[in-house]
Specification:
38% of the residues lie in helices and 15% in strands. By secondary structure, it is α+β, with helices and mostly antiparallel strands. It folds into two domains: 249 residues, 3-Layer(aba) Sandwich (Aminopeptidase); 192 residues, Muramoyl-pentapeptide Carboxypeptidase, domain 2 (2-Layer Sandwich), CATH 3.30.1380. The protein binds zinc ion. The site of zinc ion has 5 residues, from strand 13.
Amino acid sequence: MRKSLYLSILFNFFIFFLVSSQEKSVIGRSVDDLPINLYKFGNGNQILIITAGIHGNEVNTSETAEFILNELIQKKIKIPNGKSLWIIPRLNPDGLLKNRRLNNNDVDLNRNFHTDNWQPLIYFSNNIFSAGNKPFSEPETQAIKKLFESLKDKKSVVVLSLHSAGDAIITGNDEYYNKQLANIVYENSDYLFDNIGYNTSGDMTGWLSDKLGIASLTVEFKTKKELDVKNVKRIIKGILDIDIYRSVYIESNRDFGKKYKNIDKIIKDLPKDIIDKIKKNKKAENDFLSNLRAIPKVSEELLIIVNKENLLPRNHVPKDLVELNNSYFKSNKNHYYLRRIILNDLKDMFTNSENDGIILLIVSAFRSYETQEEVFNSWVKQYGFDYASKISAKPGTSQHQLGTTIDFNSLEESFEKTKEGIWLKNNAFKYGFVMSYPKGLEKITGYNYEPWHFRYIGKEASYLVHNFFNENLELFLEWYWEINNNY
Ligand SMILES: [Zn+2]
C-alpha cells in the first residue's frame, strides 16, 4: 500500500513536468479532495476514452494506464490523424490510495451511475455495498457525468473501463454498437469471456450505453496483480486504426429490414414439414426471421460445411485455439484445445448443467488433420475401410478440426439414455451447440448416430436448427449458404 502511494506521488510529479497544460486537466475531485486527472493525446474528433481504477482495489488497472501514459508522453505510441486518446488513470483516487474498492463515502462508484436498472444496494461475494443515496450522488461520478455529457459528437466516441479480474470483455448493454466494439476488442486481445456471471446495475458502461448511446465496454484483466500493458496497447491500436464512427456506429447497424425480406422465396426449397413449422403463424414466422437475421456476419465462419464431400485443408488450424482450463471445464485428461470464441457459451453450459445435477465431461475437442489421420488409420486396421468410414472421419472431414466440436462423457450409443445425454439433447442448443449426427439422419450425415458429438454454431443458428430444422444441421447449413450466396 505504501509503495503504491509513493509510486503514485512520484508518477504525478513526473507527469507534471512532461505534460503540457492543454493535455492534462482536472475533471473533478474525490470525496477527500484529490484531483481526478484526464490526459488527452491527439487532436482528432474520433476519441477512444480509457478509464481505470474506478475500484480502488484494482490498482493494476491504474498502473497499466499510467505505464501507457508514460509511453504516450515519450511518443512511443503514435496517435493517427483524426483520432484522439483520452486517459483517466485514477477514477477513484481515495480508494486507490487505500487499496479499497469504495470511495471515502463507502460507495461503490461503479454502481452509482444512472442506468435503467439502478438499485441502491449491491450484493457482491458475501458483501453488501452501497451504490449511493441516488445515482450520481458522488463527486467522482458527477465529474464523469459532466465530462461525457459535454462531448459534442457522441457517435465518434468509444469508452473502455478497465477492471480486474475476470478475464472478460463485457458490453455496457446489448446495443449493436457495443457488440461491434466488443468484436474489435476481442480480435485485438486474448481475454476469454464476455460476462462475469453477476449483474452490475449502475455501472459506468451501462449508463453510457443506456442514456448517452456511447459504445462502451468493461475490460476485465486476467489477474488482480499483473499489469496488462500488452492487451491494452493492442486494443488501443486496434481501435485507433479503424474509423470509429463508421465501424462501430454505422456499418454494424445492418439493414435487417431489407435482409431476407421475401420469406417465401428463401424457404421455398425446404421440406414441407419445415415450411409448415415456419409458416405456422405470424409469431413462428417472426421468431424464425429474427433469429436468422441475428446471425452475426462475424460468426458466419462457424457455419462452414464440413462433411465427406466438403473437406478442410490439411493446414486448416483455427487461429484462436486455447488450451482448456480445468477449473472451468471438466475433462478426462489435460491438454484439450478449443477455439476461444466458443468458451463463453461453453462455460455457461457447464455452469447451468451443474445446477441441474448434470456432470459434463469433455472427452475429445480439437483434433488436427494429422491426429485425425492417425485415428482413422487405427480404425481401418481394426475394422477395415468401409466400417471405419462410418464410425470415424477421414482426415479433413472431421468437425473436430474446426476447434468448435466436442465429444462429451462417453462414446457409446447408450449415452443417449444417461441423464447427461438427455440433458444435452434437450438443452445444448440454448448454448449454441447442436448434435451433428442424430438418430435417423445417418443417410444424410453419412455417420452412425453419435449422441455425444456436439458442434458449436452460435446461439441463433442452433435455435433455428433445434426449433425449425428438426435437428438437421446438414440441411440447415446447406440451405443457409444457398440463400446467402444467391439472395
Ligand atoms: Zn466427435
